[in-house]
Amino acid sequence: MASGNLEVRDLSVSYGRAVRALRGVSLDVPAGSVTAVLGANGAGKTSLLRAISGTLPFHRGGVDAGGVRLGGRALTGLRPAAVVRTGVVQVPEGRRVFGRLTVEENLKAGALGARGRAGTAEARARVLDLFPVLAERARQRAGLLSGGEQQMLAIGRALMARPSVLLLDEPTLGLAPLVAARIGATVAEINRQGTSVLLVEQNAALALELASTAYVLEVGEVAARGASADLAAGDELRRRYLGAAAPPTERGEDTGDAADAAAGRGDRPTLARWTG
Ligand SMILES: Nc1ncnc2c1ncn2[C@@H]1O[C@H](COP(=O)(O)OP(=O)(O)OP(=O)(O)O)[C@@H](O)[C@H]1O
After folding, report:
1. The ligand 1 atom nearest the CA atom of 47
2. What's the 9 CA to ligand 1 centre distance in angstroms?
3. For residue 115, which of 92, 82, 74 has the smallest C-alpha distance?
4. At the N or C end, where does the chain have fewer CB atoms within 10 A?
5. What is the pLDDT of residues 41-71, one digit of tens each?
6. Is ligand 1 within 6 A of the CB of residue 35?
């Protein structure tokens, strides 16, 4: 289903004159991959997804420089509906389902933006197979679902447009660990079925488990990127995002970065820093 690599190049985004949310951000989502973007509150993760999906103008934001391409085709400047038709679909943060509509109606709404009508029944079957609870609740109002179920519906609604690239903004935010793990497993399955995923998460442990490659955004810039396994093993990311102490040294103590450097221990995985 994947239709090419998603490429973000030298992207700068601002909201009015005062807020520069992204500065010169470049990243790749290879076709068929799960790629993660980590970062603290306000780092620019959501702005990145908005720039890709064409929804920045809804938030009074805009692209100042750089651009986004899918399979070589420029997405920058396209309206959100046109971006969806290229196969790139965003699931916004905060599980924004239509609360007064039923689950079934929400799914139908998701199919409206799809590339042609053919395939809607197949997409619906896929969604209900991934999330059987949505079939059970088909006639219930979406607003009455639990938080986890609303997140499933938000993802299911996006899948109704049959995306080749799914943009996921903090899908596990505020969910109990078991529910978050269930969402994570489903994201892996969606990817296994051929959909590329760009996953924005504050839950770094989960994101690094799902993704092959991850980027760390700090104050609007890519501070690090690398294979998820390397990033997860790296001291800096472990300390900052995984809430874990660095592994002990041979002497059984954490000497910290400076002492490590002084001692010449350069063999630990390090974050690949971009200098611009
Ligand atoms: N609509 C907006 N108008 C003005 N500034 C905004 C707007 N949306 C985001 N910002 C600002 O842009 C910067 C990046 O925000 P963004 O939401 O992209 O970060 P984030 O990493 O997704 O954070 P969070 O996890 O809190 O959503 C922040 O300084 C934020 O305050």
Report:
1. 18
2. 20
3. 82
4. C
5. 899 999 999 999 999 999 999 999 999 999 9
6. no
